[in-house]
Amino acid sequence: MDIILKNRGNYKELLTFKKATVIYDLTYHFCHKYLLKGDRTVDQMIQAARSGKQNIAEGVAASATNAETEIRLVNVAKASLKELLTDFEDYLRTRRLRQWEQGGTEIAWLRKFAVEHSDSAAYIDIAEKRNDEVVANIAIALLKQEDYLLFRQLEAIERQYRENGDLRGRMKPVAKEAQARNRDRAMKEAAQWGKRCPKCRTAMVDGTTATNGNLEPKWKCPKCGEIVAAGPLEIQLAQRAWRRRVLELKGIYGY
In three state form, how does the secondary structure of 106-165 look? Predict the structure, then answer.
């Protein structure tokens, strides 16, 4: 049997989530150490970092049922971290501090360090020993790496969506299979009752209808559409089938 709900794995094992956690912890440390208490920027930066981390986790949780929701949440994470990147860049610019250049020795060192470390403790240890300029530059470099990783994650989600679809798409063949199975069962029941179409000899199915609340037991041929009124001994069986159908519609009875 095909699996309908596909588990994408533990979000904590995602590199993007690990990096987002480092960014959140580093941002929390930076804001409480270098920004004034009561400054609105503190809450804004921490909330942006938290939004990035949390939306990655929520996106993975939604991936089993809806790829569109997963894409939307990852995009929200990407946008939140872009906002945080701007805040760190603004901090350096307004205080006339140097921002590390792409391709410089500091960036090369951080890239090598990032490959070997994906836990917050290693970065917080550095942050406690360095000044605000270094910590802000580390955060900026990590945010740029995370932006690229999230872009790659979105590409992977889109590729999986094109190949496998989401829950709604995977449910369609399952629903058709269930309908065919129910139709076959109804035809077998009709065959056991000995009712066959007088025209084509196909096993007939229950075609009971209701008029003003009154049941009108009938047999219907699924092949040619012939309608035959039910005999006296078949009325009870038809009523039972009708009650079962009503319960199905109410969601109480299911196959």
Answer: HHHHHHHHHHHCCCHHHHHHHHHHCCHHHHHHHHHHHHHHHHHHHHHHHHHHHHHHHHHC
Query: What is the phi/psi pair of residue 226, to 5°?
Result: -60, 135
Rounded-to-integer distance, Cα 137 and Cα 100, Å: 6
The residues near 126 (Cβ < 8 Å, ≥ 6 apart) are 134, 135, 138
- The Cα–Cα gap between 141 and 136 comes to 9
Give the model confidence (pLDDT) of 154-212 as tens digits. 888 887 777 665 545 555 565 566 565 665 565 555 544 456 777 887 777 767 676 66
The domains of the chain are located at 11-165, 170-249
Q: What is the pTM of this model?
A: 0.61
The phi, psi pair for 6, rounded to 5°, reads -100, 120
Spatial contact of 216 and 210, defined as CB atoms under 8 Å apart: yes
Give the model's pLDDT for residue 55: 92
